[in-house]
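Researcher: Structure prediction, please.
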Amino acid sequence: MFKTELHAHTAEVSPCAKMKARDVVDAYIEAGYSTLVITDHFCDYVINNAGATWTQKIDHYLAGYRRAKEYAGDRLNVLLGLELRFEGSSNDYLMFGVTEEFLYSHPELHKMKLNRFRPFAIQNDIFINQAHPFRNSLDIVKPNLLDGMEVFNATPTSSHDSRNDIANLWAQRFGLIRTSGSDFHGTDHRTLSGIMTDERITSSEQLVAILRSETHTLICEGEVAKEEGLSTMPAAYERKK
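Model: Predicted structure follows.
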């Protein structure tokens, strides 16, 4: 089985992250992962002051991903993702299947709303996954605007209570695809999450296809998993009729 991290940040881009891209890569290689998705924060406080032009803003945003990919070489597959927060909202959405070209060609992307972005996601086969949806101050959105939901987030509850057990029940209630992610920011976050697959994931297109097929296994380990009664489990489940 091959392990893939779906939720990780770099200090080059995400102000809350504590480790540079090369150190993040080293941490995941040491932990035995084959693929790492860099999902730096894409929001007003990152993008608005990152440059005068949209191209400069995206150049800055891609810095962590590009450095991780270059440093990893063939030792670890590094894919581009983002944790998108639309202006005026506190919700975060993990986006898988996004390309550099898409980011450069969609100025002010973070100033959209989720319902406006949804058609672009469908057209470009971008997987919309709500991150830690049951933390304090976040809003529940209509399930038809989402593809999936992060039902296990390994952030220690002393930092944020993600209420993963509730997210897991909610995803099943509304037929959403389930994912798991470490929400890795640095040394205080352990690599305890992500997905396992029978095949090594080497492209964003492959990742999205696997998520949609629900052939992955959710990695749910550590104290947070024990506290919430969750453990490593298949992503697929019996849909309610």
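Model: The first helix runs from residue 21 to 30.
Researcher: Thanks, that helps.
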